[in-house]
């Protein structure tokens, strides 16, 4: 327990909150920095996002039209990754898992070039941060094709975890079993985006079928006592992204966020950013938002912070 972190929340002081070690275990690398950093680099003004997006595609369109157009191409992509490490350093994120797609690896010339860039960014911009690179697959991908490429990617021994993201309804989760089997053979941490838009049963099914260690989002589990008890018994960590859930309209407001229910059911939970470049809320902001909205006490939020920094999240 850190009485100082508790006090920083009670003082509602972002300046104090940023001084404490924190984790961010779910962040899409290309959208992991602060918008101000990109706006300054591109020398443009970027409007604030709307309070809510109607859908993921609305969010994507807004992002393309308001942010990505200022930081696209090779240089733009590198700048967005750089922004993620700079942000981690500024907010004292000492354990950082960022996800990358295969197309991002190809965009910078393949695995060797990709690894060199990321290692140098980690050392230059966030040397105190334990960086855990995650390989993510689009839920709509051709799994057979991706399986063929996975062996080569994993032969570099660089990625620490695997994920499936985007449209949860694109295809049955069990189609991904071959990918996850390969990843498990290489001792990668197994995760997936589940129960963001889907159901509590979807969360349990994915954990069982893919043998997941963690779930990104997973908040739908709060609708089922049975699934919550099962997740708690199996110690499946949910990496929760409160602002993302609110802005995508899955949760009406922070004050109704199910993180409280999930936490009190004994499920290990963490607080994460998802798409910081769009949502514009740092990890410190996320903790403060939950505290101010009276969702959780300062002591509970400190417990969540400590869980995120725990040994099992150093891999
Ligand atoms: Zn995500």
Distinct small-molecule ligands in the complex? zinc ion
Strand content: 5-15%
Q: In one word, what is the shape?
A: globular
- Amount of helix: 40-55%
CATH homologous superfamily placement: Metal-dependent hydrolases
Description:
The chain is an alpha/beta fold. The protein has one domain (3-313): TIM Barrel. The protein is built from 16 helices and 9 strands. The chain has helices at residues 3-10, 14-17, 35-42, 56-66, 73-90, 102-107, 111-125, 143-154, 177-185, 200-210, 225-233, 242-247, 259-264, 276-279, 283-292, 298-309; strands at 22-28, 93-101, 130-138, 161-165, 189-190, 193-194, 214-217, 237-240, 269-271. The strands form 2 sheets. A 5-stranded parallel beta sheet has the order 1-2-3-4-5, sandwiched between helices. Helix 10 runs parallel beside helix 11 (225-233). The longest helix is centred in the first third of the chain and has 18 residues, at 73-90. It is globular and about 50 Å long. The mean pLDDT is 97. The structure holds zinc ion. Residues 26, 28, 165, 193, 216, 274 line the site of zinc ion. Zinc ion binds next to strand 1.
């Amino acid at each position: 327990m850190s009485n100082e972190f508790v006090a920083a929340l009670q003082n509602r002081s972002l300046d104090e909150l940023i001084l404490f070690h924190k984790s961010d275990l779910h962040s899409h690398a290309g959208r992991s920095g602060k918008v101000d950093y990109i706006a300054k680099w591109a020398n443009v003004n970027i409007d604030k996002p709307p309070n809510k997006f109607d859908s993921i595609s609305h969010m994507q369109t807004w992002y393309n039209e308001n942010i990505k157009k200022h930081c696209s191409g090779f240089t733009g992509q590198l700048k967005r990754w750089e922004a993620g490490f700079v942000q981690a350093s500024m907010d004292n994120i000492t354990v950082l898992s960022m996800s990358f797609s295969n197309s991002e690896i190809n965009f910078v010339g393949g695995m060797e070039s990709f690894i060199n860039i990321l290692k140098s960014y980690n050392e230059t911009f966030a040397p105190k941060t334990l960086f855990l690179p995650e390989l993510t697959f689009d839920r709509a991908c051709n799994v057979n094709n991706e399986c063929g490429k996975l062996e080569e990617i994993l032969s570099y021994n660089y990625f620490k975890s695997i994920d499936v993201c985007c449209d949860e309804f694109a295809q049955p989760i069990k189609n991904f079993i071959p990918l996850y089997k390969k990843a498990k053979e290489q001792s990668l941490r197994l995760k997936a985006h589940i129960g963001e838009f889907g159901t509590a049963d979807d969360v349990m099914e994915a954990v069982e079928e893919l043998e997941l260690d963690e779930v990104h989002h997973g908040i739908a589990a709060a609708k089922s006592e049975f699934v919550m008890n099962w997740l708690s018994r199996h110690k499946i960590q949910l990496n929760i992204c409160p602002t993302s859930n609110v802005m995508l309209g899955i949760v009406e407001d922070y004050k109704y966020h199910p993180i409280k229910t999930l936490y009190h059911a004994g499920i290990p939970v963490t607080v994460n950013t998802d798409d910081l470049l769009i949502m514009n809320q740092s990890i410190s902001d996320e903790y403060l938002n939950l505290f101010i909205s009276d969702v959780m006490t300062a002591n509970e939020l400190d417990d969540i912070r400590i869980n995120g920094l725990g040994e099992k999240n150093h891999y």
